[in-house]
UniProtKB/TrEMBL annotation:
Signal peptide start-end: none
Record-stated family: Belongs to the ABC transporter superfamily.
Gene Ontology annotations for the cellular component aspect, listed alphabetically: membrane
GO molecular function: ABC-type transporter activity; ATP binding; ATP hydrolysis activity
Name the UniProt record assigns to this protein: Capsular polysaccharide transport system ATP-binding protein
Alphabetized UniProt keyword annotations: ATP-binding, Nucleotide-binding, Transport
Keyword Cell cycle set for record: no
InterPro entries linked to this entry: AAA+_ATPase, ABC_transporter-like_ATP-bd, ABC_transporter-like_CS, ABC_transpr_TagH-like, Bact_Polysacc_Export_ATP-bd, P-loop_NTPase
PANTHER family found in the cross-reference section: TEICHOIC ACIDS EXPORT ATP-BINDING PROTEIN TAGH
Annotated ranges, domain ABC transporter: 2-221
Bilayer-crossing regions: none
Lineage of the organism: Bacteria, Pseudomonadati, Pseudomonadota, Alphaproteobacteria, Rhodobacterales
Amino acid sequence: MLHLENLTKAYRTGRSLKYIVKDANLDIPNRRSVALLGRNGAGKSTLLGMIAGSLKPDMGRIRIHGSISWPVGFSGSFHGALTGAQNTRFVARVYGVDTDELYKFTEDFCELGEHFHMPVRTYSSGMKARLAFAVSVGIDFDTYIIDEVTSVGDASFRQKSSALMHDRLRGSGAIVVSHNMRMLTDLCDCGVVLEHGTLTFFEDVKEAVERHEFNMKARDYR
């Protein structure tokens, strides 16, 4: 269960405040895959950051029952001087999971070959993304935070990533952000639309997509 209670977050723009969310209240049951939709700049990433714990709300609180991932595929916390293998083992120790199990899964899934044993600072952005995705989904979380992650790599790797994500979501929930409406309707069963600081929940993800597309056509966005 994810529970948002009177959640408020705003940034000052000149003399005024721009509200990302304002007095938002929302309950999302366990094992639901939620599409988070909103315009560019609406604050989706900020909301995800608060849910993940990397940002603090100005007011209100977020209660989470069960474990929640960092944004799947996020590589910003990797230490550049450590190898992919060393970073993987470090993450396993931090999250208290079997080190050897996560190591073996990640090495096999990310397909980096000998680069897995080289410093991450030598990786291309694509290689970092592969490593980050494999480490993220190699741990069983109750809820995954997903942000365009299945677009990583070539067609074969994207297909493999998508298949694994579907497998994980059979027993876990997710909060998914993507500009790909087909991906959202494929992965998610419900949706939340963020508009003018207000969160609106839709039991059917297709209804959420329709509302988002309607909002995108409106010209009165502030």
